[in-house]
Structures are given as structure tokens and as C-alpha cells.
Amino acid sequence: MDDVVVDLLGGLRKLWPDREIGDDGWSVCQTLGITHAEFWDRIVQTPNFWADLDFTPQGRALISAVNLRPNTEWWFATSPTGCAVAAEGKYRWVEKHLGKDATSKIVLVQDKWLLARQGAVLIDDRDYNVEAFCQKGGIGIHWPRNWNNARFNSHQPLDYVLNRLEYL
Ligand SMILES: [Mg+2]
């Protein structure tokens, strides 16, 4: 969900507008020179941080494409994060953008490999999640971002994923 469909990185950049948060993913605390506790505190103290995040540029198109695939069911496998209000905020985000019924598609899970099984596909931006999902018998596909092993396709993440799905 985060940084695949939902623009978490963009939201963080709005929280620290005077700081340069690079495109290298989760070195944000290091970049900002703050502790993880300070990082999460700032998010918790920002009303509706999670619910107000934008779509990523191709996030909506990914959902549309998956909806069009025959014989396909899908869910959001998403981390509860280190933030007490993330679960509610993510629920509100889905409700706002995709409707109340879609909230039942939220699976809060840190270890996404728990959902791996034959034929199950995980689309994710984190190398660890993709690799662990494959190791546990699922099909892990990167959503290319500048911080993962599919970074050479980060200018066209949707094309990359649709191409991978086509050849399963
Ligand atoms: Mg993510």
C-alpha cells in the first residue's frame, strides 16, 4: 500500500518541507537527523496524516488494472507501522478513495510473507518483502522505486508490473 498505491514519501516531504528527503526510501530518519520516536511522534501529531495522503502517480491505475484481471481477488497487505494511528488512518484513506466496501480489503500485516502461498502474488516496493514472499512459495513482484532492485524501471512501475503479471 505505502509507496505503491499511497504516496507516503510525498506525505513525509510535506511534513518536513524545509528538509531534503531523498528518493532512497527508508533512510528518512537518518536524512532528517531524528530518532524513530521523533519521526513517529511528528506523524501522530499531524491530524489525518494517513488519511490525507495522495495516490502515487500510478497507484489508481494499478488498482484499475488489477480489477480488470480475470479471476483475480486482491487485498491491501499493509504494515501497521510504528504509529498508533496508522491503522485508523489507512482505513479512512481506503474509505475516502475506494469506498466503504473496500475497507474489508485491508490486511494489517508486518510480515507479508505470512500471506504467501502457491499462486498468490505480492506487489511491493521493499526488497525484503518481495524476496521473503518468494521464499515462502508465493510470487513476489517489485513495484519499482528508486530504493529497490527494480529501480531501473522506476519511471514506469505499472508497465513493469503488468508485464510481469502477463507472464505468470
Ligand atoms: Mg511499501
Describe this structure in words.
The two termini are 22 Å apart. The mean pLDDT is 95. The strands form two sheets. Strands 1-2 form a two-stranded parallel sheet. It has a two-stranded parallel sheet with strand order 3-4. By secondary structure, it is mainly alpha-helical. It has helices at 8-15, 28-32, 36-44, 59-68, 86-98, 127-135, 157-166; strands at 76-78, 106-108, 121-124, 139-142. Helix content is 38%, strand content 8%. It is built from seven helices and four strands, in the order ααααβαββαβα. The protein binds magnesium ion. Magnesium ion is lined by residues 2-4, 124-126.
Short description:
The chain is mainly alpha-helical.
Record the SSE blueprint:
Elements: H1 8-15, H2 28-32, H3 36-44, H4 59-68, E1 76-78, H5 86-98, E2 106-108, E3 121-124, H6 127-135, E4 139-142, H7 157-166
Parallel strand pairs: 1-2, 3-4
Bound molecules: magnesium ion.
The site of magnesium ion (MG) has 6 residues, from loops.
Main traits of this protein?
38% helix; 168 residues; 4 strands; mainly alpha; two-stranded parallel ribbon; binds magnesium ion; globular; single chain
Largest sheet descriptor = 2 strands, parallel
Q: pLDDT below 50 for ≥5 consecutive residues: which ranges?
A: none
Number of helices: 7
Helix and strand string, N-terminal first? HHHHEHEEHEH
Q: What integer value in Å does the Rg equal?
A: 16 Å
Outline type:
globular
Question: How much β-strand is present in the residues?
Answer: 5-15%
* Global structural class: mainly alpha
Mean pLDDT value: 95
Ligand kinds: magnesium ion
How many beta-strand elements?
4
